[in-house]
Specification:
This protein is an alpha/beta fold and about 190 residues long. The protein has two domains: about 5-140, Rossmann fold; about 150-180, no CATH class. It is built from six helices and nine strands. It has helices at about 15-25, 40-50, 70-80, 100-110, 125-140, 160-170, and strands at about 5-10, 30-35, 55-60, 65, 70, 85-90, 115-120, 150-155, 175-180. The strands form three sheets. Strands 2-1-3-6-7 form a five-stranded parallel sheet, with helices on both faces. A hairpin with a 2-residue loop joins strand 4 and strand 5 (about 70). The longest helix has 17 residues, at about 125-140. The protein is globular.
C-alpha cells in the first residue's frame, strides 16, 4: 500500500518551489508529496487516487488559481476524499486583508476547507510546520491511525464520562468523546 498523498496546488512557481522544499524535507518519508501548478492535473491525480482507493491526507491550495478559487478546489476534494484535511494557502499578512479574512471565515464556516495555512517564508518555517503537523494529526485521528488515542463513550451529562475526560485532559492524553446513542458511540 502506498503512502498517503500530501498535495499542494499553487500557480506561483517560486512560492510552490519553497513550499515543495519544506514539504519534501519534513514529510516525504511518510507521505507521497506532490506539488502541482495546474488545477486540472491536481483533479486528475485526486480522481485517480479515489478510483484506486489510495488515501489522501492533506490538500493545500492557493487562494487564487487562475480563474478558479482555491476554496472551490478544496470543496471538490471533499467529494472525492471526505477524510482528507484541506488547507487554503495564503501569504504572510494576507490573513489581515478584509477580503481574504472573509474568504477564510466563509470557507471554514461552510465546510469548504478546514483551515488556512500561511505559506512558508524561510527554511525551516516552524509556524508552517506546526500548522501542517496539526492538520496531519487531525487526519490521523479521524482515520483512527494515531497511536494511543483513547475513545470515551458516554451520555452528555454523565458524571463519570466528564471525570474521565477531565482526568485525560489534565494528563495531556489524546482522547475523543462521542455520545453513546450516536452512530460512532454504538
Amino acid at each position: 500500500m502506498s503512502d498517503p498523498l500530501m498535495l499542494a496546488i499553487d500557480e506561483d512557481a517560486d512560492a510552490l518551489s519553497v513550499l515543495e522544499g519544506e514539504l519534501q524535507d519534513r514529510y516525504a518519508r511518510h507521505y507521497r508529496v506532490v506539488c502541482l501548478r495546474s488545477v486540472s492535473d491536481a483533479r486528475t491525480l485526486l480522481e485517480s487516487d479515489a478510483a484506486e482507493g489510495r488515501e489522501v491526507a492533506l490538500v493545500l491550495a492557493a487562494e487564487l488559481l487562475g480563474e478558479t478559487a482555491g476554496s472551490d478546489v478544496l470543496d471538490e476534494v471533499h467529494r472525492l476524499h471526505p477524510h482528507a484535511m484541506r488547507g487554503l494557502l495564503i501569504g504572510w499578512g494576507d490573513w489581515g486583508d478584509k477580503a481574504t479574512g472573509r474568504t477564510i471565515f466563509d470557507g471554514v464556516a461552510q465546510g469548504r476547507f478546514d483551515y488556512f495555512v500561511v505559506r512558508p517564508s524561510q527554511s525551516p518555517d516552524e509556524l508552517f510546520h506546526q500548522t501542517i503537523s496539526g492538520l496531519l494529526l487531525d487526519w490521523a485521528e479521524s482515520q483512527r491511525a494515531a497511536p494511543y488515542t483513547i475513545h470515551v463513550v458516554g451520555e452528555t451529562w454523565s458524571g463519570r464520562a466528564y471525570e474521565l475526560r477531565e482526568a485525560l485532559q489534565a494528563c495531556a492524553v489524546d482522547h475523543t468523546f462521542c455520545l453513546a446513542d450516536s452512530s460512532e458511540g454504538r
